Amino acid sequence: MIRPLFTLGGLAIAAVLLALALGSVNVPAFDLWQVIQGEGSALNRTLILDLRLPRTLAAFATGGLLAVAGALMQVLLRNPLADPYILGLSGGAAVGALLAMLAGMGTLLISGSAFAGAMLAILLVFGLAHGTGSWTPSRLLLTGVVVAAGWGAVITLMLAITPSYKLPGMLYWLMGDVSYARTPWPALVVLVVSIVLIMPLARNLNVLARGPMQAAALGVSVRPLEWTVYLFAGLLTATAVTTAGSIGFVGLIVPHMLRLVLGNDQRIILPASALAGGTLLVLADTLARTVVAPEQLPVGVITALLGVPMFLYLLHRSR
Amino acid sequence: MSSHRLKFRIALGLLILIVVQSLSAGEIQRCAVDDAGQELCVAAPAQRIVTLSPGATELMFAAGAGDQVVAVVAYSDYPPAALKLPSVGNHTRIDMEALLALKPDLVITWVTGNLPAQIELLHELGLSTFAIEPRTFEGVSGVIERLAILAGTEQEGFVEAERFRVGIATLLERYRNAEPISVFYQVWEQPLMTINNEHLIGKVLQLCGGVNVFGDMPRLIPRISAEVVLQADPHVILTASVDGASDDQLDRWKSYSTLRAVARNNLFFVPASPISRPTPRLLEATRLVCETLDIARERF
Fold it and tell me: B120 CB near a chain A CB, below 8 Å?
């Protein structure tokens, strides 16, 4: 059970080291080792410690957050098409961020506004789906999809009325941009703490995946568990979107890829998602900033280009 | 007369520099205020300059500091020497690593064109930045002078700024009493965009005696509908294209035969880069627009 996690952990470390070495200026392994030890030329130190390390760690944290949130959503809604954004979270965060950009605020306030928007989105869907007392996954899903469409309309409106020179910044945020992240520590801390807190619930989640009736019959307190998981998934997604904008694909596909290889035990899938999601996004970000350098591509494009063939291959092999 | 004024300006500039040097502890301080209101002082002329907009590239060469530019961004296609310089990406997506690797001592940024988050990162990395965005003719000549001060190329830069100033003054004089003629300047076809009188292109139109039918709109680059253009019924419709060649951007108006501009065949194209960038080429662009409006005036 632990071995796949060790393999994934090794892959993650390798991906991070690769990301630190590669870029518009390639840093040979020896120089990289020097910088890690605290020496090395000033340029290499600035490149690696000030530019690449925060960016890579932010990419890893964001990928991990999205993948775990996706896995949780898929269990919660018992729907393989669920992803972290299905309940309108990214829409709310986007509206918050775009409003802040429209008002000309600084990066910190934009992030804060995005987080506030995400929280509002969670509460909105929660409140609306709660309705007359009982909420089922399908009711939650339907409410979430409709609210997400509503956020989408607000975003479109804002893009239509914003002055032309502010558009590129807004569009890049919407496409997802890891270079936005100034510091990776909030995202990393949230990821690690969430994994630690959610692992004890993983066994119950396995039972819940069979259905609420069966779970209740087996002694799982379904409603509190669902609420907890939903709030966790929301927090993880909000943190991810606040850090790097709305990066798609990772949250949907990474849990599925892992399930094809490792089976559906949440005790493995959740930590594995964190590692694999982080690795995927780190590799995608490295490609995004090197493949047509000095032009910089949005990372969401690369995650899809990498992930789609990988997923189709795994799907094919699992037959 | 003007060369006297020019020599006076150069002398004044050098005098200011000498005075500042005698006041400061030892090294000569070159200071200039950028278009965001920040003052930048450099101890020595900047030798490794990176320009983060095509306009800044042109202005740097105009200031005589082309040899001191080490990197540009995409679309820095003028003067031809700039094409040989390495690029650090796009004005909205800068490759920070490539920029850092060049060890620049001055980065020329674009107030509204570069993304604020990237400018913040430049500051965090300790790079000196100078933000430019000329909005008037005097702004263009002023920015050439300020860039020349920072790069230590006052001789060439002040001359070029003066050439631009004199050229604009001459055009102003020639077209001071030109008969007003209504103009619609089409920035983009889909969505339909134009400019107001605050925009540099709006000022070009005003100098030539053109009356921008959307000049009083509150936004700098308003997005409008075809209906308001039909309602305004301008005498001239002007747009920019590559090298000023006719293309299909104005075809949509040809179906409205009631438009005066269409009836009199006053649909004109001007070269895009000279009129869109706040650089010395704006002088030639203004001259061309004024002559174009004169052609339209003959068709009153």
Answer: yes
Distance (Å) from the alpha carbon of B97 to chain A's nearest alpha carbon: 6
8 Å CB contact of A51 and B100 = yes
B203 and B128, same structural domain?
no
CB contact under 8 A, B101 and A25: yes
Partner residue opposite A295 with nearest CB, options B89, B96, B121 = B89
**Range in A213-217, B91-95, B129-133 the model is least confident about:** A213-217
The predicted pLDDT at position B26 comes to 46
Q: What is the pLDDT averaged over residues A75-87?
A: 86
What residues of chain A lie within 8 A of the CB of B100, using their CB? 25, 43, 46-47, 51
Whether residue A291 lies within 8 A of chain B, CB to CB, comes out as: no
Q: Indicate yes or no: CB of A165 within 8 angstroms of CB of B103.
A: no
| Boundary (domain end) residue, out of B169, B203, B233 | B169
- For residues B118 and B162, state if they share a domain: yes
Residue B116 contacts A where some CB pair is shorter than 8 Å? yes
The pLDDT tens digits for B210-233 are: 999 999 999 999 999 999 999 999
* Sign of CA pseudo-dihedral A197, A203, A209, A213: negative
Which residue, among B97, B114, B124, would best test binding to A if mutated, counting the most A CBs under 10 Å from its CB?
Answer: B97
Residues 6+ apart with CB under 8 A from B72: B50, B51, B54, B57, B82, B85, B86, B87, B88
Return the structure tokens found at B250. Answer: 């104005």
What is d(CA A242, CA A96) in angstroms, rounded to the nearest whole number? Answer: 10
d(CA A220, CA B71): 63
Instruction: Give the end of a domain, one of B121, B142, B169.
Output: B169
Share the mean pLDDT of chain A: 89
Among the listed residues B27, B88, B29, the one whose alpha carbon sits nearest the alpha carbon of residue B57: B88
Percent of chain A with pLDDT over 90: 46
What is the residue whose two structure tokens read 């996954």?
A: A137
User: DSSP 3-state helix, strand, coil percentages of chain B (rounded to 5)?
Assistant: 50, 15, 35
Tokens 């509206």, residue?
A: A95
* Domain count of the fold of chain A: 1
Which structural domain range is residue B271 located in?
Answer: 178-298
Q: What is the residue whose two structure tokens read 């990419």?
A: A59
Q: Is the dihedral of CA B232, B233, B236, B241 positive or negative?
A: positive
Tell me how many degrees the CA angle B239-B74-A28 measures, rounded to the nearest 5. 170
Return the CATH number at B105.
3.40.50.1980
Q: Residue A169 and residue B116: Cβ atoms within 8 Å? A: yes
pLDDT digits (tens, 9 = 90+) for A176-192: 888 878 789 999 999 99
The residue of chain A with its CA nearest to that of B118 is: A180
Residues of B in contact with A293 (CB under 8 A): 95, 98
**In whole angstroms, what is the distance from residue A24 CA to residue A289 CA?**
8
Residue A295 touches chain B, beta carbons under 8 Å: yes
For residue B20, the model assigns a pLDDT of 59
Residues B80 and B149 in one domain: yes
Which helix (H) or strand (E) is B183 found in, with range? strand B181-186
